[in-house]
Amino acid sequence: MSGKTVFSGIQPSGELSLGNYLGALKRFKDFQGANDSLFCVVDLHAITVRQDPAQLRQRTYSGVAWYLASGLDPAQCTLFAQSHVSAHAELAWILNTFTQMGELERMTQFKDKAARHKHNINAGLFAYPALMAADILLYDTHEVPVGDDQKQHIELARDVAERFNGIYGPTFVVPKMVAPKAAARVMDLQDPTSKMSKSVDSLGTVFLHEDEKTISKKIMKAVTDNEGMIRLDKDKQPGVYNLLAIYAACHDQTPEEALAQFTGKGYGDLKKAVAEAVVTVLAPVQARHKELMADTAQLDAVLAAGAAKARARANKKLAEVYAKIGFTPRQG
Ligand code: ATP
Ligand code: LTN
């Protein structure tokens, strides 16, 4: 063990996308074993947007299966569902009281989702970052591997940890975000100025479960530009930049290394190479996911074992926080 604790979470709010895979999931296996690592299906977060119960259950199983299919081994990490460990909701309540309205109002994810769900701008959606801070701070997490879109939330978790520590003395580890070297923000293939999102069903999102033909078609139809040159220019050529970043992430390269392979080539060549790279990377993961989904009892067993491990740790931290705040000790 390196002595580092790593935590990350994915919401069962839709079918997972290529953004989730390259920005987060694909890297998780590299953190297990040598580190103390915890990975969570954050179902409490998912209900900040209205969910159909049967679909939520199915997507939670699917999320666990994607974690396993991408190489996580429950013997080497702690894999669990957020709602199975009640300390997450309890600490979130406490942290709500250390989080300012003004801080939450600045969160771009809240602003985006509030705009998309105008008829359900609920208090949970607003307070979402305090729950995320609780997820992370409960386990004395050092590193949080996430995509770029989570930067603001991690910064808030750091501020809340420092604020609490400042009042009650050292209690929480102040966590750091770890972004991937390429594809930290995979963009929508049809609108490369917007993030590829799993909860927006469009031609611009590649879903992990899609077949080879569909994936290739979506990538071949990706929006580019009229420049006609393959360059790394995020502002002037966001579509091309996005394709290069996806290619790079699939090959474990930096975008600069990927660019070097396309000198003198055209957009058609680039798209073909990206489609091939994505299909090749996803094929074994998809096959394993399918096998795992055939046995949900096995997935329940993985979640039960993971929750037992997480619960013991989380309850200990929560008791420490409660004592510092001045709650009388829980008897039994
Ligand atoms: P929603 O669309 O419901 O908000 P999401 O896919 O944006 O969902 P999560 O499921 O919570 O959000 O994301 C899980 C992980 O995937 C996080 O680490 C997040 O940063 C990462 N991620 C999500 N979208 C992208 C993207 N387009 N590019 C890179 N990483 C991403
Ligand atoms: N907010 C994240 C999901 C998430 C998370 C976490 C990520 C919830 N809790 C803890 C890392 C650590 C999102 O919307 N992508």
Please give the number of β-strands: 5
Q: How would you sum up the global shape?
A: globular
CATH superfamily of the largest domain: HUPs
Give the N-to-C terminal Cα separation.
Answer: 33 Å
CATH topology of the largest domain: Rossmann fold
| Fraction in beta strands | 5-15%
Q: Largest sheet, described in full?
A: 3 strands, parallel
Name every ligand kind in the structure. adenosine-5'-triphosphate, L-tryptophanamide
How large is the count of helical segments? 13
The succession of helices and strands, N to C, reads: EHEHHEHHHHEHEHHHHH
The oligomeric state of the chains shown is single chain
Going across the major beta sheet, what is the strand order? 1-2-3
Rg to the nearest angstrom?
Answer: 20 Å
CATH architecture annotation of the largest domain? 3-Layer(aba) Sandwich
Number of domains: 2
SSE-based structural type: mainly alpha
CATH class of the largest domain: Alpha Beta
Average pLDDT for all residues? 96
Task: List segments where confidence is low: pLDDT < 50 over at least 5 consecutive residues.
Answer: none
Q: Fraction of residues in helices?
A: 40-55%
